[in-house]
Amino acid sequence: MERAKIIKEELIEQNLRFLAVYLETKNACLILFSENEDKLGTLAIAVPKPKDMLGPASSSILLGDRNAISARMFAEQLASTNSKIALVSIYLETVDEIRAQSILRKLLEKVAHAEMKKEETPT
């Protein structure tokens, strides 16, 4: 039985530190995006559509409202990409949500790249 994968990444952008903590289990994945320090923020959940149905993943906000659009967007993307339940938390202190989207996208790509490298490395 394989244990959960955990990946921690960070990115310095516009003199600000953005962090990601990614956790993946057999049926779900969770990513916490935050600015400056690891914190829980607005939390969205997305469930992928079954293979025979068209359309994006279904999503909803579980907690908070400040960065709801981005949290749902990234949760839907993660659920569709991984075909798993996805939880995404976004905590931003100084950067507005729209400006942060491109930064968080880069951070998500960095996490995905680290995950691919981890899978290639024999244990």
Question: How is this structure best described in words?
Answer:
The protein has one domain: Ribosomal Protein S5, domain 2 (2-Layer Sandwich), CATH 3.30.230.100. The protein is 32% helix and 37% strand. It has helices at 68-82, 97-120, and strands at residues 5-13, 16-24, 28-35, 42-47, 58-63, 85-91. A 6-stranded mixed β-sheet has the order 1-2-3-6-4-5.
Tally of DSSP helical segments: 2
For this structure, the CATH topology is Ribosomal Protein S5, domain 2
What is the number of beta strands?
A: 6
Shape: globular
Largest sheet: 6 strands, mixed
Structural class determined from secondary elements: alpha+beta
Element pattern in H and E:
EEEEEHEH
Number of domains: 1
Mean of residue pLDDT? Answer: 92
Beta-strand residue fraction: 35-45%
Amino- and carboxy-terminal Cα gap? 14 Å
What would CATH call the architecture? 2-Layer Sandwich
Strand order of the main beta sheet, please?
1-2-3-6-4-5
Low-confidence stretches: none
Radius of gyration: 14 Å
Percentage of residues in helical conformation: 25-40%
